[in-house]
Amino acid sequence: MGRDNLTWVSEFVLLGLSGDRQTQAGLFVLFGAAYLLTLLGNGLILVLVWLDPRLQLPMYFFLGNLSVVDICYTSSGVPQMLAHFLLEKKTISSARCGTQHFFSLALGGTEFLLLAAMAYDRYVAVCDPLRYAAVMGPRLCAGLAGVSWLVGLANAAVETAVTVRLPTCGRHVLNHVACETLALVSLACVDVTLNQAVILASSVVVLLVPCCLVALSYARIVAAILRIRSSGGRRKAFGTCTSHLTVVSMSYGMALVTYMQPRSTASAEQDKVVVLFCTVVTPMLNPLIYSLRNKEIKAALTRVLTRSSESKR
């Protein structure tokens, strides 16, 4: 097809989850409540990490970064989705679509990398506890977090650049809830070999490599825990990792299902479910998992509330 015949659209139509008005009203309430819980839960984690001196530890530094990512990640797509539940015309301009695509990729990639950094933190805490404070110093923690953010942003910039340049020859209906990579590429009317290569490379850099690092860290952790003779010691050591392991299983598991499976076996509805799980469910559950299973977070909340009530007297 000659370049003169290629066209780019100025806006896209998002089909979303349902065309039924009653169903959309119910979904608005459901996802609106989930969004508020995400903001409140992750905001509370940030406040506690900031205010409580006893949480000035590497684990909670990374947890604070994760909360920032979750707030921004869910905010990159959920408000627009909520608006579309109430609107008859579910359109998004190509510029806003590209912006949403970039931030979704950047924040999603950063979260995967942060989870790998947190796995390393747990590895040092369990396998080398006597040197934990020396190894996980402020410089290393800041470096790991900084690399996670920079790689996430750089990966998103490359993938967005090769995606938004694709002409669609007038096709502008996205069978999705957001401007997601695979949905945008499926509209292209030109060869997408480069895009497929970039998607594969991106999946390796921000998903497969961090996932392997997490697996390696936990293999070493499990081996170290099994060498502990007392059952109480084993439970205590494993208890420091369960929250992180739960979050890792949810985040990596759903992403691997989306980006590492053959596209011939995937469906648009499955892609929607996975994206909603990653952008709505996981950010909402993360603070609940870390707070419900973490005695230090509970104790920090009690101390902050006690200080607040005493200051009002």
UniProtKB/TrEMBL annotation:
Superkingdom of origin organism: Eukaryota
PROSITE patterns associated with the record: G_PROTEIN_RECEP_F1_1, G_PROTEIN_RECEP_F1_2
Residue spans crossing the bilayer: 25-51, 60-82, 102-120, 140-158, 197-216, 237-261, 273-292
Localization, UniProt: Cell membrane
Alphabetically ordered keywords of this record: Cell membrane, G-protein coupled receptor, Membrane, Olfaction, Receptor, Sensory transduction, Transducer, Transmembrane, Transmembrane helix
InterPro entries: GPCR_Rhodpsn, GPCR_Rhodpsn_7TM, Olfact_rcpt
UniProt domain G-protein coupled receptors family 1 profile: residue ranges: 41-290
Matches recorded under SUPFAM superfamilies: Family A G protein-coupled receptor-like
Membrane topology summary: Multi-pass membrane protein
Described function: Putative odorant or sperm cell receptor.
Family: Belongs to the G-protein coupled receptor 1 family.
Record-given protein name: Olfactory receptor
Species of origin: Bos indicus (Zebu)
Source taxonomy: Eukaryota, Metazoa, Chordata, Craniata, Vertebrata
Chain's gene name: LOC109558013
